[in-house]
């Protein structure tokens, strides 16, 4: 190790002492400077004082819409399609003519049946007259009993022929009516399977499908465990208890909530063995035809029986390894963490099943500036329950 050389005119020991004094002075200056720097103020955060609100039980189900009435329109007589009376995918009214089949052969059949009926009626008049004259001649011996019986049989046969002709005419008129295929009810028509000029008949199958979608059905399923729990609850309350009061709404595929309220109209009597669930059906008014059959939708079901629960903004909830947590500010304005059990979501809000109490102050803005254990400056804030927007309360602190 090399020995430090003292400056000229200064002893080595004096040089070491001077360095020690210099270092001591520097250390003193450092302590003095640190003492003069003020400590940072506590970070400001927006807090929300939680309160309890009435919340009903809530479930969401994926469902599929179905027309409440659907028929396959078919041809009941054979012939060439001469006219189509609808626009594919449009609404049609009850009784509207959807297709017209060439009726010329059927008109001819009706005319032939009418002529045959007239001939049969004329034959009745002739045979009846002969029988009546025979009845007058027989007592005087001018007509044998055997001949009179023949006249009676001819008159009876002629009357039977009239009935047969009437039946044939009625059938011919029915078939003529079948050449005009009308909508049995108002609804939506789908895509036509046959065009004008095609020969169709009873064996042609479906010409077009017609469905009535007002009201509209929504089919969905409830798992068997939940269904059994519901039945047990009903049993405890008494067999005569009324069906549960439910508010049922619909979220469409574009995430908008449908304006019409629905009702539960059907529960199957057995469990679907392939899915382990019971089939249910809700019904919604659909006067504008906005909800189309075959859509996948979300059914929102809320019980009208409500219990008080803490409701907080979803933005205040953090997902950690411990589960869902929130940061709270205690009476000393110190940050602490609480693990919470979350329930149903209500727009931008979230119901809390456990972990918070009414009056707790949770941090809703400024989470990134704090950590557990530090002191903060709380500023009271409010949350719009519809949009989730956060705003400070006037004079709130």
Automatic annotation (TrEMBL):
<dbReference type="InterPro" id="IPR006143">
    <property type="entry name" value="RND_pump_MFP"/>
</dbReference>
<protein>
    <submittedName>
        <fullName>Efflux RND transporter periplasmic adaptor subunit</fullName>
    </submittedName>
</protein>
<feature type="domain" description="Multidrug resistance protein MdtA-like C-terminal permuted SH3">
    <location>
        <begin position="308"/>
        <end position="369"/>
    </location>
</feature>
<feature type="domain" description="Multidrug resistance protein MdtA-like beta-barrel">
    <location>
        <begin position="215"/>
        <end position="301"/>
    </location>
</feature>
<dbReference type="Pfam" id="PF25917">
    <property type="entry name" value="BSH_RND"/>
</dbReference>
<dbReference type="GO" id="GO:0022857">
    <property type="term" value="F:transmembrane transporter activity"/>
</dbReference>
<dbReference type="GO" id="GO:0005886">
    <property type="term" value="C:plasma membrane"/>
</dbReference>
<comment type="similarity">
    <text>Belongs to the membrane fusion protein (MFP) (TC 8.A.1) family.</text>
</comment>
<keyword id="KW-0175">Coiled coil</keyword>
<dbReference type="InterPro" id="IPR058626">
    <property type="entry name" value="MdtA-like_b-barrel"/>
</dbReference>
<dbReference type="InterPro" id="IPR058627">
    <property type="entry name" value="MdtA-like_C"/>
</dbReference>
<dbReference type="Pfam" id="PF25876">
    <property type="entry name" value="HH_MFP_RND"/>
</dbReference>
<dbReference type="InterPro" id="IPR058624">
    <property type="entry name" value="MdtA-like_HH"/>
</dbReference>
<dbReference type="InterPro" id="IPR058625">
    <property type="entry name" value="MdtA-like_BSH"/>
</dbReference>
<dbReference type="GO" id="GO:0046677">
    <property type="term" value="P:response to antibiotic"/>
</dbReference>
<feature type="domain" description="Multidrug resistance protein MdtA-like alpha-helical hairpin">
    <location>
        <begin position="111"/>
        <end position="179"/>
    </location>
</feature>
<feature type="domain" description="Multidrug resistance protein MdtA-like barrel-sandwich hybrid">
    <location>
        <begin position="69"/>
        <end position="200"/>
    </location>
</feature>
<feature type="coiled-coil region">
    <location>
        <begin position="110"/>
        <end position="175"/>
    </location>
</feature>
<dbReference type="Pfam" id="PF25967">
    <property type="entry name" value="RND-MFP_C"/>
</dbReference>
<dbReference type="Pfam" id="PF25944">
    <property type="entry name" value="Beta-barrel_RND"/>
</dbReference>
């Amino acid at each position: 190790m090399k020995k430090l050389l003292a400056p000229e005119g200064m002893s080595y020991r004096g040089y070491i002492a001077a360095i020690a004094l210099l270092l001591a002075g520097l250390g003193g200056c450092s302590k003095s400077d640190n003492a003069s720097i003020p400590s940072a103020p506590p970070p400001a955060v927006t807090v929300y004082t939680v309160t309890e609100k009435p919340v009903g039980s809530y479930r969401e189900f994926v469902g599929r819409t179905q027309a409440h009435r659907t028929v396959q329109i078919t041809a009941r007589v054979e012939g060439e399609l001469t006219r189509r009376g609808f626009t594919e995918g449009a609404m049609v009214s009850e009784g509207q003519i959807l297709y017209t089949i060439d009726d010329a052969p059927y008109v001819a059949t009706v005319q032939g049946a009418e002529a045959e009926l007239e001939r049969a009626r004329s034959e009745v008049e002739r045979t009846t007259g002969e029988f009546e004259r025979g009845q007058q001649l027989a007592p005087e011996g001018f007509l044998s009993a055997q001949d009179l019986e023949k006249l009676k049989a001819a008159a009876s046969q002629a009357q039977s022929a009239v009935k047969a002709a009437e039946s044939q005419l009625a059938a011919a008129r029915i078939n003529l009516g079948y050449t005009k295929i009308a909508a049995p009810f108002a609804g939506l028509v789908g895509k036509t399977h046959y065009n004008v000029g095609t020969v169709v008949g009873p064996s042609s199958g479906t010409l077009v499908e017609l469905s009535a979608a007002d009201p509209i059905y929504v089919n969905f399923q409830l798992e068997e465990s939940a269904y059994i729990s519901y039945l047990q609850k009903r049993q405890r309350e008494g067999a005569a208890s009324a069906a549960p009061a439910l508010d049922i709404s619909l979220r469409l595929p574009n995430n908008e909530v449908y304006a019409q309220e629905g009702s539960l109209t059907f529960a199957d009597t057995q469990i679907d063995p392939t899915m382990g669930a019971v089939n249910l059906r809700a019904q919604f008014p659909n006067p504008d035809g906005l909800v189309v059959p075959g859509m996948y939708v979300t059914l929102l079901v809320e019980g009208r029986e409500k219990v008080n629960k803490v409701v907080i903004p979803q933005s205040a909830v953090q997902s950690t390894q411990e589960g869902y947590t929130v940061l709270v500010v205690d009476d000393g304005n110190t940050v602490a963490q609480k693990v919470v059990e979350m329930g149903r979501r209500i727009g931008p809000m979230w119901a809390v099943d456990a972990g918070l109490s009414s009056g707790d102050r949770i941090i809703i803005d400024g989470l990134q500036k704090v950590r557990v254990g530090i002191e903060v400056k709380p500023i009271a804030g409010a949350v719009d329950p519809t949009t989730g927007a956060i705003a400070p309360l006037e004079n709130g602190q």
